[in-house]
């Protein structure tokens, strides 16, 4: 079985179609890499790509994209709402199939080293690949953004993991990391009271004392006039979708509110949903890797 | 995306390890075909293989196996509990990915024609590939078994779909067909009363007025001393696992009995389980083919 790795580079360009097309062409030009999805946001001036490939190909694909972005995107001219510090702003690798997190960390470090060596872009390692705890959190690493980076790199604690204490003049700084697959999971309530969704979000999320691997906020769906608990599930092995769903159900009951539906935004690994089926059907001794037909079909 | 087809040939040999090994070697020798699983039963004297491959390769793989079986298995010497009429007894094709049932029917007919032309084995088409309604049911086609076939083929209604009214002297007759994927799904009850499982099975199965695409019987799990509703779900598009599960739950309530667990025997397509998750999470507008990561990974 081939080891499969996902890579989700974020580029600081969401407006210039020529450059976006160039990134797409670059992604498609690397053998063994499949471009699953990409989307650009005008107001953020940012594009998010989702690639998948075997262990070797994904490294080559990621590097070629970072190279292309460094040649075409000039951060000294970049404006946009989303925080950013580099032409390729972040480059996370995610284990998909038959590969461990530790292997993804090693692979992230190899790509990070090559980016610095061949393109002279300083690199921070983040999340699971971080070299120290305070660098796990991307927001902390990126604080100061592109404009503040020349100064930040000179601070005692902020020498890059690869490269010197000096930004690339136009491509800035890149964060390279490894993380678990993430699922965006939203649960809709039969209330127009945002306060209730906010209270439930606070209870359910790790930062509020809830599930460690769940991030949550309350949001209002204006078009439907209903409140929603909007979640990022960041470790589906440690916290499955059914668990937050059932918790939201019993917490909402206190307000006389029920769940009227849910949604998954973007991609989800099949296992995240099969885990849910296993729970509700009370399946005994189900072996995901052996009993799901498709697991025998992936190269 | 490559079209993927499953093929589940049943061979009338479950005792001679040399012949079984030869079948395995033959299955593995055809490029583009993957042998997912095989099992042999001594008392049935029968082996069931599960292969998968693209549209062209699976035809070649199926044919080569039928050819090997016709050379090695002598039906005049075959004994075993399971009904059978040929060296390759049945050869069903199942659509797995990006292929319609109609395409599987066409493919089954092509393989059937080749089997007759090159190996001189008469072939009946069955299930979705059947040439007339009374040939859909395999049990009816196979009635009379190997020993009764010479006579049966001479009956007015039983001319083979391919070939003359004369069995292959040692390989007999083969049934080639197309059908939907099938899932073996068993639900365990917290009772030692087999009668209750039998009553629920009767209510739930198509032949008893229940769900058309569900076959069910009550069985006793001797080791655990509990009764089980044992089902074959033969069309998961038309009847999902959660539907029979919830029906068993409310029917069992009448006897004060609850569900204590369930099991899936063998392989299940991921979609069968994702459908279950969609139901229980009340997912709105979930697009299986686009939103499940793995669906982008299959060649």
From TrEMBL, chains A, B:
It is found in: Cytoplasm. Its main location: cytoplasm. Pfam families: FTCD, FTCD_N. Pathway: Amino-acid degradation; L-histidine degradation into L-glutamate; L-glutamate from N-formimidoyl-L-glutamate (transferase route): step 1/1. GO terms for biological process: L-histidine metabolic process. GO terms for cellular component: cytoplasm. Keywords: Cytoplasm, Folate-binding, Histidine metabolism, Transferase. This is glutamate formimidoyltransferase. It comes from Streptococcus iners subsp. hyiners. The lineage of its organism: Bacteria, Bacillati, Bacillota, Bacilli, Lactobacillales.
């Amino acid at each position: 079985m081939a080891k499969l790795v996902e890579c989700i580079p974020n580029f600081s360009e969401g407006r210039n179609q020529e450059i976006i097309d160039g990134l797409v062409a670059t992604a498609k030009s690397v053998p063994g890499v499949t471009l699953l999805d990409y989307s650009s946001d005008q107001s953020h001036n940012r594009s998010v790509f989702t690639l998948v490939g075997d262990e070797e190909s994904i490294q080559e694909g990621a590097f070629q994209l970072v190279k292309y972005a460094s040649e075409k995107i000039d951060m000294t001219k970049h404006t946009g709402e989303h925080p950013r510090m580099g032409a390729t702003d972040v480059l996370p690798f995610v284990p998909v199939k038959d590969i461990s997190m530790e292997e993804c960390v090693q692979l992230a470090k190899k790509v990070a080293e090559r980016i610095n060596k061949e393109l002279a872009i300083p690199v921070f390692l983040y999340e699971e690949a971080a070299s120290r705890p305070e660098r796990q959190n991307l927001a902390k690493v990126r604080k100061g953004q592109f404009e503040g980076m020349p100064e930040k790199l000179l601070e005692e604690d902020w020498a890059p993991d690869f490269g010197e204490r000096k930004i690339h003049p136009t491509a800035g700084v890149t964060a390279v990391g490894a993380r678990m697959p993430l699922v965006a999971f939203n649960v809709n309530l039969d209330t127009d009271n945002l306060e209730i969704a906010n209270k439930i979000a606070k209870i359910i999320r790790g930062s509020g004392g809830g599930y460690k691997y769940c991030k949550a906020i309350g949001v209002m769906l204006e078009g439907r006039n209903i409140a929603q608990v909007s979640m990022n599930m960041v470790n589906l092995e440690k916290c499955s979708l059914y668990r937050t769903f059932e918790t939201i159900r019993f917490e909402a009951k206190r307000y006389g509110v029920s769940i009227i539906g849910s949604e998954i935004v973007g991609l989800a690994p099949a296992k995240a949903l099969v885990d849910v089926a296993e729970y509700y059907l009370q399946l005994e001794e189900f072996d995901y890797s052996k009993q799901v037909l498709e697991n025998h079909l992936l190269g």
